[in-house]
C-alpha cells in the first residue's frame, strides 16, 4: 500500500464536477493503469461509480477481465455493486479512505468477501480525514 496512490485518488475525486467526489485508481506493478471518478450525474446512469469505471478502463487497457495483480485505491468504501465487481475482476487488494456506514460492502454495512467467499486484502482508513472532508464539503455545498 502506498499513500501516494490514495493521494492521486483524492486529487481525481476533486475533479468530479457535480457528482459525489469519489475517486478510484487501479495500480499494477506500482504504476497507475486506470483512474476514474463518479459519473452518475454526468451520464445519468446508476452504474457509473468510480470503481466500476476504473475496472472497465483497466480491463480494456490490459485486454483481460482478470485484474489479479492489481490494487485499487478508492476514496470511499465500495458499495455492494462495486465490491462485487472488484471481487469478480479478481483484484488482489483494495485500499479505501473512509467508511460508508450506509452502503459500505467491505465491513461497514456488509462484507461481500464473506458473502461471496473471496479472499482479498482490504484495508480502510487510508487518508481517512482528507477523504471524509471531501464528502462533507460536497454535501454541505449542495444542501
Structure, described:
The protein is α/β, with parallel strands linked by helices. The chain is 40% helix and 20% strand. The chain is built from 6 helices and 5 strands, in the order αββααβαβαβα. The chain has helices at 3-13, 40-43, 50-62, 80-88, 112-116, 128-142; strands at residues 23-28, 31-37, 70-76, 93-98, 121-123. The protein has a 5-stranded mixed β-sheet with strand order 2-1-3-4-5. β4 (93-98), α5 and β5 (121-123) form a beta-alpha-beta unit. The model has no long low-confidence stretch (mean pLDDT 96).
Summarize the structure.
40% of the residues lie in helices and 20% in strands. It is built from six helices and five strands, in the order αββααβαβαβα.
List keywords for this structure.
single chain, 143 residues, alpha/beta, five-stranded mixed sheet, globular
Instruction: Tell me the strand order in the biggest sheet.
Output: 2-1-3-4-5
Proportion in β-strands: 15-25%
Distance between the termini: 35 Å
**Structural class based on helices, strands and sheet pairing:** alpha/beta
* Low-pLDDT windows of residues: none
Q: How many individual helices?
A: 6
Radius of gyration: 14 Å
